[in-house]
């Protein structure tokens, strides 16, 4: 995990976004990379506002960054307002009951605590409806709490030119006008890249910080993760034989194989395996791309090293599954998923080494 790359990627987005503030989304253990290392590295380069999903994540982050502004995107579950207040965590309030509960808590305790308000501009996942937002804009000064951020979330920002993105921006710009002096935030990574009119006062990038693709066709920033696995056996098999569970791939030539220490229990998706009908993921061994052959097992996967020199690969050598030009998004595509899922699935058995930062 290259913390310098994350720091550089944040600086790039912060420079692009100014004068809007560049926050950092570190939910799900900083997209699987390790919030305990990633969040302090981001703080050191200047990030001051952080978003996580859950209260638990926010409490952990508070322990790491005592002075950060922390928002919990998934908002308040019933009865948790006191826990948010105790750790100075700002809930992102996405429904009338949540707004009511935070308000009541503040009134009962004679404090006016900050919170974000999430307005649904068309994604229909979280957030108060537009009519509710309009009503709230007339009454929020009487509420017990202090709205510190009006936010919404883009549903299709990864797809260039999607009509919903343009519509959400217009709707959000209208909502924001009703809350003068409250900061506004609409953009995830993709939104941040789409231009000033999407950035408002604060941007909330996640995936782009971690070396993933944010918008289809727009190259990622610096890669962050290098994923390696050791070769535990080198063997040969004649043409016509099959490799792995289910015998899904038949060898078309006499082959040399390298079986490596990685499997779906490590979050290395089974869907990235190889069959006769569909080629799977690749790894770099001895400086060359080698294709997976056959299915990925729980703890093992097999690479075809026939095209390498006979003594190029030895037991104990390292195969690179991410890095050396293999991106998170390439691997994701081979597994029929997205870079976000490749990162957040990185398993607990890997030895994690952090460099830089
Ligand atoms: C996850 C998330 C983000 C960050 O999205 P990326 O696409 O990773 O940049 C921003 N805002 C909200 C509400 C999110 O849930």
From TrEMBL:
The active site is at 27 (proton acceptor), 245 (proton acceptor). The modification N6-(pyridoxal phosphate)lysine is found at residue 27. Pathway: Amino-acid biosynthesis; D-alanine biosynthesis; D-alanine from L-alanine: step 1/1. Catalyzes the interconversion of L-alanine and D-alanine. May also act on other amino acids. This is Alanine racemase. Residues 224-355 form the Alanine racemase C-terminal domain. Keywords: Isomerase, Pyridoxal phosphate.
């Amino acid at each position: 995990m290259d913390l310098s790359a994350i720091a550089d990627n944040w600086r790039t987005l912060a420079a692009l976004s100014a004068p809007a503030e560049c926050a950092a989304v570190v939910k799900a253990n900083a997209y699987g990379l390790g919030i305990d290392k990633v969040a302090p590295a981001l703080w050191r380069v200047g990030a001051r506002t952080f978003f996580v999903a859950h209260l638990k994540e926010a409490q952990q982050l508070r322990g790491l960054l005592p002075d950060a502004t922390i928002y919990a995107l998934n908002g308040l579950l019933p009865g948790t307002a006191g826990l948010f207040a105790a750790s100075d965590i700002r809930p992102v309030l996405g429904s009338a009951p949540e707004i009511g509960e935070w308000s009541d808590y503040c009134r009962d305790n004679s404090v006016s605590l900050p919170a974000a308000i999430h307005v649904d501009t068309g994604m229909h996942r979280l957030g108060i409806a537009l009519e509710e937002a309009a009503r709230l804009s007339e009454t929020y000064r009487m509420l017990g709490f202090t709205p510190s951020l009006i936010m919404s979330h883009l549903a299709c920002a990864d797809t260039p030119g999607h009509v919903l993105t343009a519509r959400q921006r217009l709707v959000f710009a209208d909502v924001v006008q009703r809350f003068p002096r409250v900061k506004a935030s609409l953009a995830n990574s993709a939104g941040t890249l789409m231009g000033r009119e999407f950035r408002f006062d604060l941007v909330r990038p996640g995936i782009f910080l971690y070396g993933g693709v944010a918008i289809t066709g727009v190259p990622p920033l610096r890669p962050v993760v290098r994923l390696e696995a050791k070769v535990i056996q080198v063997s040969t098999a004649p043409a016509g034989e099959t490799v792995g569970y289910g015998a899904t791939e038949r060898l078309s030539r006499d082959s040399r194989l390298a079986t490596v220490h990685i499997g779906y229990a490590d979050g290395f998706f089974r869907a990235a395996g190889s069959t006769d009908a569909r080629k799977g993921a690749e790894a770099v061994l001895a400086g060359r791309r080698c294709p997976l052959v056959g299915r990925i097992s729980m703890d093992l996967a097999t690479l075809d090293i026939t095209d390498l020199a006979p003594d190029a690969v030895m037991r104990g050598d390292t195969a690179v599954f991410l890095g050396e030009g293999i991106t998170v998004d390439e691997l994701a595509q081979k597994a029929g998923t997205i870079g976000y899922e490749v990162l957040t699935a990185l398993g607990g058995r890997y030895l994690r080494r952090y460099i830089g930062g």
